[in-house]
Amino acid sequence: MTSVRREWLFSLVLATLCIGLLFVDLAPPQRDFSSFHARGLVIEVDNSHVRTHQFIRTEFQVLTVRLLGGPHKGSELTITNLLSGKLEFDEFYEEGRQILVEYGLVDGEPANGAARGHYRLHLQALLIGLYVALLVVVAGVTGLKAALSFVFAAIVLWKLFFPLLLMGYPPLLTGFLVVALLTAAVTFSVGGLNRRGTATFLGSMLGVLLTCVLAIWFTGSFQLHGAVRPFGEALLFAGHYDLNLTHIFIASVFIACSGAVMDLAMDIAAAMEEIKLSNPDIGLVAHIGSGLRVGRAVVGTMTTTLLLAYSSSHIFMFMLVMSKGLPSLNILNAPFVSAEILNILVGSFGLVTVAPFTAVIAGLLYRSRIRATSA
């Protein structure tokens, strides 16, 4: 079987797994009644009960909504939209807006409805479609494989990883196995079932393993726990008392950096392959040295990747603690800030070391001559 056929067969297996996982339900909702979801149009709003204090709204809105889809399309129902005064959770609706409605049935008619936010699902689907189209236009077949691996990663996290954690599976082992599965899917789908894909996979996993070990070590040394993450404490109050939030936090550290690690490993492996194709007689030491030089150049720009990604996602937190006028030592020593520093630096260790890991592995794999068509 040729390498091209192997890669298409692997992509077919990946697509089949994606479809199969959609029917997996490891964590069914803990509810004893049936409900429906549909897109609804707000046709009337009563704000007479809303209390406004500066930018905070409390009490409730009364909405009249017409269902635009689902089995009860065209029906109208009244919804009470409770306002807690927390901007991160509340949504304020106006007439003419489309919202996601969850409702039940009373005597066969829609009733007891609840607003679940402005309707965004169609825009999310459009954005995903545009992203996939861009990948295909820019990278052709490789872009299509990348889109498939992207979908596979999202489904694995949603259908396997999160439910398994809720079921009490060990977060560190489960997280590492999930990363190994996703890394294999991405690297072999995009890089191919060849030495390039193998070098990318092995180099990535070594980088992730180092990140995992360092995360375990420094989390204990920093005296941190998983409740520093948003919604961690809420999970405990929701009844999941047996969850090990600290181990889940550690798993999140090496999972978060695994994508960037794969990216860098693929860059090095692809460069090593091109070097070997251009100079088949290059020696092992010289080949690895060339890969290390490529790695140095790439790492020079990649070292700030995690810093910018993580710090920008917590920009409000940093602005808040700074606005309090606290000394820098107090800010840096705070648990939630220390957690982000650990996340950034430990992840960066894996990102930096994956370059030499991949260069050495690729050098060993490419010791023999290769043909341009067999890579």
UniProtKB/TrEMBL annotation:
<feature type="transmembrane region" description="Helical">
    <location>
        <begin position="245"/>
        <end position="266"/>
    </location>
</feature>
<feature type="transmembrane region" description="Helical">
    <location>
        <begin position="148"/>
        <end position="166"/>
    </location>
</feature>
<keyword id="KW-0472">Membrane</keyword>
<feature type="transmembrane region" description="Helical">
    <location>
        <begin position="172"/>
        <end position="193"/>
    </location>
</feature>
<dbReference type="Pfam" id="PF07907">
    <property type="entry name" value="YibE_F"/>
</dbReference>
<keyword id="KW-0812">Transmembrane</keyword>
<feature type="transmembrane region" description="Helical">
    <location>
        <begin position="297"/>
        <end position="321"/>
    </location>
</feature>
<feature type="transmembrane region" description="Helical">
    <location>
        <begin position="121"/>
        <end position="141"/>
    </location>
</feature>
<protein>
    <submittedName>
        <fullName>YibE/F family protein</fullName>
    </submittedName>
</protein>
<dbReference type="InterPro" id="IPR012507">
    <property type="entry name" value="YibE_F"/>
</dbReference>
<feature type="transmembrane region" description="Helical">
    <location>
        <begin position="205"/>
        <end position="225"/>
    </location>
</feature>
<keyword id="KW-1133">Transmembrane helix</keyword>
<feature type="transmembrane region" description="Helical">
    <location>
        <begin position="341"/>
        <end position="366"/>
    </location>
</feature>
